[in-house]
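Incident review: delayed structure delivery

Summary: a single-chain prediction request sat in the queue longer than the usual turnaround. Root cause was a stuck worker, restarted by the on-call engineer. No data loss occurred. The affected request and its eventual output are reproduced below so the record is complete for anyone auditing the incident later.

Affected input:
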Amino acid sequence: MADYIAEFVGFLLVIAVIWWKVVPPVRKLMRRQKDLVAAQVVAAEEAGRRLALAEQKYRDALAEARTEAAKIRDAARADAQRIVEEMREQAEREVERIRQRADEELIAQRQRVVSELQRRIGELAVDMAAELVTEHLADPRRRSATVDRLLDELAAMGAPGGEA
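Output delivered after worker restart:
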């Protein structure tokens, strides 16, 4: 029995040594690990909150960007429509200017043609008259009749009270 008591006392001594020497550092280590895990849990929760906040900001920014893109697209369409209208008006003004210039040029060309025709008709009339007179005076009988008629007209003009 003394062996049992000695073993029991040895066992109690080993337990006491473990309790004083091993348990406090193990508790200290366990407390550190517990604190570390608690800190990591708090950090993870904070990171989760920041992630949720960042995701919300991202969604808000994305929605705002889409809205802004729609506004820009609408503004660009309005600008394009305005530019088309301006270009159409400018083209219409240019067409009117070209048409007016063509009308003026047509009038000037018509005047040149009329003037040229008048000059040419005048030349032709003079040429025909010269040809007719030459042809008429080429025949001696006609020439004599024309001279006689001219002299009769001059005599009638020279006679008192005989103006014809």
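Verification: DSSP finds two helices and no strands in the chain.
Action items: add queue-age alerting; document worker restart procedure.
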